[in-house]
Amino acid sequence: MVSPVYLLVVTIAAVFLVPLADRIGRSYGMSVFYAAIAAAAGLGLFWFLSLRGGAPAQNVFIAGFTGPYAIQLQLGIAESFVIVLVNTVFLLASIVLGGALIKEKAYALTLMLLMLTGINGLVLSRDLFNMFVFMELLSISTYALVAMPRNGQAFSAGFKYMIAGGLASTFFLIGTAFVYRTAGTLHLDYLLRSPELLHGGVGFAALFLVIAALLIELKPFPANGWALDVYQAGHPGVVSIITTAGTGAVLFVLYKLLPLMSVRMLQVLGGAGIVTFVFSNLVAIKQENPGRLLGYSSISQTGLVIAGMVFLRLFGIREIAVYAAVAGGLFLNHLFVKGLMFWLSERVGPRPIREWGVLAGKPLLLFLFGLAVVALSGLPPFPGFWAKWEFLKLLAANGYYPVLGFILAGSLIEVFYLFRWLGYAAVKEDHDTISPAPAVTLPMVAAAILLLAASVFFSGSLSVREPLLRLIPAAGILFYLLEPLPGRVKTVLALAASGSAAVIVLPGLSGLHLVFGIMLLGGSLVQMIAGLGSGGRRRGIYPGMVMMVYSFAGLLVTETALGFFFAWEMMTLASYLLILRGSRSARTPLLYMIFSTGGAFLILAGLITALPAGSLSSAGLGDLVFSGGTAFYLIIAGFLVKAGVVGVHLWLPGFYSEADHDVSPILSSALSKAAVAGLFIFMSLANGTVPGSDMFSVILGWIGGLTAFFGTLMAIYQEDAKRLLAFSSMGQMGYIILAASLMSTIGWTAAIYIAVTHLLFKGIMFLSVGGVVSRLNTTNMYEMGGMIKRMPLSFMTFLIGLIALSGVPPLTGFGGKWLLYSALVGKGWYMLTALALFSSAVAFLYCYRIIHSVFLGQLKTGFRAVKEASVWYLIPQFIFVMLIMIFSMVPRLLIEPISAAVGKLAGPDLLWQGNTVSHALGYWNGTTVMMVTMGVFMVPLVWLLSRVRSIQKVKQFNIVYAAERPDRPETTHYAHNFFAHYTKALGFLSLPLVRRFWEGAGEWISSIAAALRHLYSGNGQTYALQVMLYITVLYLFMR
Amino acid sequence: MIHAVTATGIILILTGLWCMLTRKHIIRIIIGFSIIDTGIHIMIVSTGYIRNRTAPILDHAVGLQGAADKVVDPVPSALVLTAIVIGLAVTALMLSYAVKLYRRKRTLDINNYAELKW
Amino acid sequence: MIVKALYIVLSVALVTVWGLTLTGIVRKIVARVHGRIGPPVWQPFVDIIKNNAKRTGISHGVMFYLGPVFRIAGGMGTFLFIPVLFGSDMFSNFSFAGDVFLVMYFIFFGQLGMALGSGEGGHPYSAIAVARGLAQMSAFEVPFALSVISLAVQYDTFSVSSIVAAQQGSIFSWTMFTNPLATIAAIIAMLGMNMHSPFDVVIAPQEIPIGPPTEYQGSFLGMLHTNRGIFNGAKLILFMNLYFGGATTIPEMIVKTFCIYMISVFVGVSFPRFRTDQSIRFFLGIPTLIGVAAVILYWL
C-alpha cells in the first residue's frame, strides 16, 4: 500500500511545480494543479478500497522521529473514508472554481493546494502540534482565498474571519502548550493510552482550550457571525470547500480527540452541537441571501454532526461502523449536498432566493436543486435519512428524549426554509435566462451521482432487505429519465409499472393489508387511466406518480419499522412532487410538506421509542413495544396529521384540489387512505397492549367526529369546485377515524367500508369535475352551470357518486352510515352519533351546491360549444360506477370480506341471513332496498312515459323570472354565495381560527428568528467578543 | 507556583485581548493580536524551562555528553520557532487586508465595515 | 309474492287517499280560520286529475323530467319501509328491509331528486328554495336525530316494528308518556319537516312562488301533488309509530295521524314565518337541548 506521506507529497510538490509550469503556459499550470488534486482523490479511493478489503492501518513517522519533531501520520479506515470524501469534493469544487482561478495569478492555485495539504494533514496527523500547523496552513490559505472576489464585502468578511480564526488558533496553541506541560507529550496515542495525565486542573484547562478552539473553528451558534459573512461574501466555490472539506477535517480532529474528553465535556459539547443545529436553522428562516442561507444551513449541519459523534461517544459506543453510519452519514450527506448547492448558487448568480424561479425552465438544474433540498432535509433515500434514523434510535434507546425532540424541531424548521426555497424555484417561473456553464454543471451532476451512489451504499449497510423498497426511488429516477417521452406514452408505462407492482404485491397480502392493498394500488391504477386524456409532455407527473404507487406497495409489504418509515417518507416526497407541479402558488406544496413532515416526525419518534431494547436496525413491526403508551400515541398523532383532522387540516384543501385534474382524484381518494392504512396497521399491532386505551378511544372519536363536522361545514362555503370536494374528503376522513376509534368489529368494518366507498365515489366526483374543469378552464362553480346539457355522461357518473356520498339509499353510501350509527349507538356514544347525523345532513348542502352550480341551472354563453369530457376521464368513472352498483345490489360482497379481514374485536359481530345483515339493534337488507327503490321508481316513470306523449322541449331561457324572459345566464344562475343564510346562522363556526392559530405560531417563530439574527451585528469586534464570551460560558458549563 | 515568565506571558495575552476587543482602529487590533502572539510564545518557552539550565543549543559550552541534563526541555523551543513563523504570516496577511480595506473606504475604523450582517 | 304485491298496492292506495284527504281537510280548516269558505275537501283529487289531463308537457331536460319520478319514488319508498299497522301482515310493507335509519335516509331520496329536477329547470327561484330547504332540513335533523337516538337507547332497538311493539299495552306505554322530551323534540322537528308556517320560507308563496316546483306543470305537477299525499302520510305514520303507540286498525291510524297533523296546522296558522337563518338557529337552540336532555335521561 502507498504510504500516506505521498498524499502530502503530491500536493506540496504541486505547490512548487505549478508556478513553474505556469511560466510555460496557463494551461500547463492548471493541468498540474488538477492532476495533483485528482491524484490525491485517487489515492484516497485506493486506500479506502484496500483498507475495506482488510489491509492493515498504517502509522508513519517522517524522518524516523516521533512527533512533534517530525510529522506523524496515521491512515486507518476512518481516515481513508474522510480523505476520499474531502478530496473528491475538493476536486469538484476546483472544477467549479476553474473559471475564476484561470483569471488569477498562479499563486491562487498554490493557495488552493496548500489548503488541501492542510486539510489532508489535519485528517492524517496524530500529534497535537502537527495539527496546529496543518490547521494554520488551512486557515491562512483560506483567509487569502476568501478575498478572491476582490470587493469590499470580501475584504471585510475576510478580515473578520481572521480576527476570529486568529483567536481560535491562539487558544489552540495555548492549550497545546499546556497539554505538553502537564502530560509531557503531544502524541495522541500516548495521551489516549493514559488519559489520566490530563485529569488535573491544568490538564483539564489545556484540553478545554484545545476543544474550545476546535469548536470555534466549527462555528458554533451564536459565536459564528464572522463565518456567515464569509459564506455570503466569498466565492461560492471557495466557500463550498470551507464548509465541506475544511469543516470535515476539523470535525475529524474533534473525532480523534473524543476519547480524551470527560462525560461532562461530552455532554456540553453535544449540547453545543444541538443548540447550533436548532438555532442556526431558526435564524435561517428570515434569510433571503442564498449564500448566507446556505451558511446557516451548513453551520446547523455541522452542529448535528458534532452532536452525532459526541453522543455516540457518550453512549460508550466504540465501533467505527456506528460512527460511520451516524456522523459519517450526516457528514457525507452535508458534503455533497452543500457542495452542490453552493455551486448552484454560483450558477444562479447574485439573486435573492425569491428570484430563483430562473430554475423553473431548466429541468436538469431544478432536478439537482430538488435532489439537494430533499437530501438535506433528511428524506430518503439519501444518506442523511439513514444516519438520522440511526442517531435518533440511539438517542431514544439511551433515554435522551429531549435531545431527540430538539433535533426533530430543528429538522422541521430546516424542511420549512428549504422547501420554501424549492417552491420559489419550481413554482414562481422567472423567464430570465442564466448562461450555460458546463464547468459548474458537471461537478453538480457528479455530486448528485455520488450522493445517489452513497444512498445505495447506506441503504445496503442498513436493514432494508425488502427489494421492493429499493425500487421506489429507482422507479422515480427511471421515470425522470423518461421525461422527454410524450405524456400518453408515459401514462402507459406508468400504468404498466404500477400494474406489475400490484400484480406482484397483492397476492402476498392478507387481511387488512390486502384490503388496503386493493384500495391503494387498484384505486390508483384505475384513476391513472385518466392521464391518457391529456396531451403534451406532462413533465413532472410520472416520477412522482410511480414513486407514490410503489410507496403504497412498500408500506403494505414491509415488515420492519425502518422499512415502513422509509416507504412513508417516500410517499410524502412523491406526493409533494405531484402537488408541486400542479399548484399555482408555492404556498400549498410548502404547507403540505411542513405538516406531512411534522406528522412523519411524530411517527418517527413513536417508532424509535417503541423499538425493543437492543434491537438491530431490522426490528420488525411486530416486535415493537407499545406498553409505554407514548410511542403509540405519537404514531397515531402522526397519522392523524396526515389524515388532516381538524386543527391540522390547513394543508388539506389546497393539496387535494390544486394538483392536475387527473392527479387530484388519486390524491384525494387513494393517498388519503394511506393515513387510514397506517392507522389500522398500528392499531392492530398495538391492540390490547396500550394502557389507557378507553380514554384514547374517546379522544380519537371526538377528533373524528369534529373533523367530519367541520370538514363538511367548510365544504358548503366553497366557491371552487375542487376545494369543495377537498373539504368533503376531510369530512369523510372524519367519519373513518370516528368509526375506527370505536375499536369494535362493527366499528372497524364501518371504517373500512366507508374508506372503500369513499375511494369509489370521491374518485368519480373528482374525475368528473376534473373532466369538466379541463374543458372549461375554471374551477369557480358560479362561472359554470348547465353542464348536464353538454356533458351528460359526466353528469350521470357524478350523480351516482353524489348519491353514494350523501348516504341516500339504495346506493353504497347508506351502508356506511348504517354501520357507523349501529356501531356508535352500540358503543353508547350517543352525542357523537348525533354529531355524525348532523354532519351527514349538512353534507347534503354541499352535494346539492356542487351538482347544481356545475351541472344544472343556466348554461353560460361562453360554454355552449364545449364537448363531453375526454373518454379517458370517463372510463375510470364508469369502472367505479359499476363497482358502486354491484356493491349496492349485493352489499354482502363488500361487507363480508371486510369484516373477515377485521377479524374479532370487541363488541357484537355482524350476522348474515341471506342478504340481510343484522346486529343486536338493527338490520338492513340492501338488496331488497335496491329492488323496492327500482320498483317504486319504474312505476311512476312508466306512467309518465305513457301519459305524456307530447313533451315539448323548450329552450334555455323559456322561464319567466322577474316578470320577463331572462336573456343572460349570469343573472339567472343562482350559484354564488349559495348558502348565505347558513353563514348568517352558523358562520361563527367556520371562522378561520385554525389558520389564524398556525399563522400566529409561524409569525411568532419568525419574530424570534428576526430578533435572534440581530446578534450578528456585522462588527468584527463584536464577533470577537462573542467568541470570548462563548468560550467563557462553555468553560463554566464544562467545569 | 507560576513562574514570572509565564506570568508575563499571560499578562501580555490579556493585554492583547483587551486591545483587540476595545480598540476600534484596525491597525491597533492587529497590534493587539501581535501582542497576544508574543505572549503565547513567551508562555510556551516558559513551560519548558527548568531552573538552572541553559538553552537547548548543542554547542561547545554544553557538549554532547549529558546534554540532556544541562539544557531545558527543547520541545517548547522547537514549537515556538514554528509558531513565530506562523504568527508572522498571519500578521502579514492581516496587514495586507488592512491595506485593502483602507484603499476601499479610506477609513480604518472597524465599525465602518459592518455592511454584511444578520 | 303476488299476495305481497297486492298488499303493497293496497297499502299505497290507502296512504294516497288518506294523505290527500287530509290535505283537503287541512286546507278547509285553514280557510275557515282565515275567515274564507275554502275549497272542497276533495279539491286535491280534482287538482291531480286536472293536471294529469293536460295534453302537453313542457320539459327542460332529462333530469327535469325525472325529478317528479324521483320525488314520488322517494315518497312511496319511504312509506314502504314503514310498517303501517302493528301486527298486520297486510300492512307491514317492506319494513323487514331496514330499520329506522333506512327510513330517515330514504326521506332524502325524493327530496334530492326533486331538487335536481328543479335545478335543471333553470329558474333561480327553484335553486333559492332548494338552498333554503336544505339549510332548514339540516337544522331540524338535529333534534329529530337526537330524539330517535333517545328512542334507540330507550327501546334498545332501531327497528320501527319493535318500537311499536314495545308501546303496546296501555296508553301510558306510548313514547309520548314514557319519553316526553324525545317526543317534544321530534314534534318540533316535524314542524320544520311539514314546512308549515313558521318554517315555510322554502315554498314562500309570495316571494318565490311555491319554491322548487316553480317550473313544473301538467302531469309533472300532478305527480308532485300525488306525492304530497303519500309523503305526508308516510311521515305521519312514522311519527305515530315512534311516539304515539302505532296503530292496530285503520281507523286508529286515521285518527292518530289526523291529530298529529293538526299540531302542525295549529302552529302554522298561529305563527309568522321565520327567515332561513332564524329557523336554523331556532332548531339548533332549544329543540336541540331538549333532544340532548332526552338522550342523557335515558343514558343515565
Overview of the molecule:
The complex is a heterotrimer of chains A (1039), B (118) and C (300). The longest helix of chain A is centred in the first third of the chain and has 32 residues, at 152-183. Chain A contains 40 helices and 6 strands. By secondary structure, chain B is mainly alpha-helical. Chain B is 65% helix and 0% strand. Chain B has helices at residues 4-22, 26-47, 67-70, 74-105. Chain B is elongated, with a radius of gyration of 19 Å. By secondary structure, chain C is mainly alpha-helical. Strand 6 (950-953) of chain A pairs parallel with strand 1 of chain C, so a sheet runs across the interface.
Layout: helices, strands, pairs:
The complex is a heterotrimer of chains A (1039), B (118) and C (300).
Chain A: H1 5-24, H2 26-52, E1 58-61, E2 72-75, H3 77-101, H4 106-124, H5 128-146, H6 152-183, H7 188-193, H8 201-217, H9 225-233, H10 236-257, H11 263-284, H12 290-314, H13 320-348, H14 363-376, H15 383-397, H16 401-426, H17 438-461, H18 467-481, H19 487-505, H20 511-528, H21 542-557, H22 561-582, H23 587-610, H24 630-643, H25 652-657, H26 664-686, H27 693-715, H28 721-741, H29 745-776, H30 787-790, H31 792-806, H32 813-827, H33 830-855, H34 871-889, H35 892-902, E3 911-913, E4 916-918, E5 923-925, H36 926-947, E6 950-953, H37 969-972, H38 980-986, H39 993-1012, H40 1020-1038
Antiparallel strand pairs in A: 1-2, 3-4, 4-5
Helix pairs in contact in A: 1-2, 1-4, 2-3, 2-4, 3-4, 3-10, 3-13, 3-17, 4-5, 4-10, 5-6, 5-10, 6-8, 6-9, 6-40, 8-10, 8-40, 9-12, 10-12, 10-13, 11-12, 11-16, 11-39, 12-13, 13-14, 13-15, 13-17, 14-16, 14-17, 15-23, 16-23, 18-21, 18-22, 19-20, 19-21, 20-21, 20-26, 20-29, 20-35, 21-22, ...
Chain B: H1 4-22, H2 26-47, H3 67-70, H4 74-105
Helix pairs in contact in B: 1-2, 2-4
Chain C: H1 2-34, H2 43-52, E1 56-59, H3 62-80, H4 100-121, H5 124-155, H6 160-166, H7 175-178, H8 180-194, H9 218-243, H10 250-270, H11 276-283, H12 286-299
Helix pairs in contact in C: 1-9, 1-10, 2-9, 3-4, 3-9, 4-5, 5-8, 5-11, 5-12, 6-9, 8-10, 8-12, 9-10
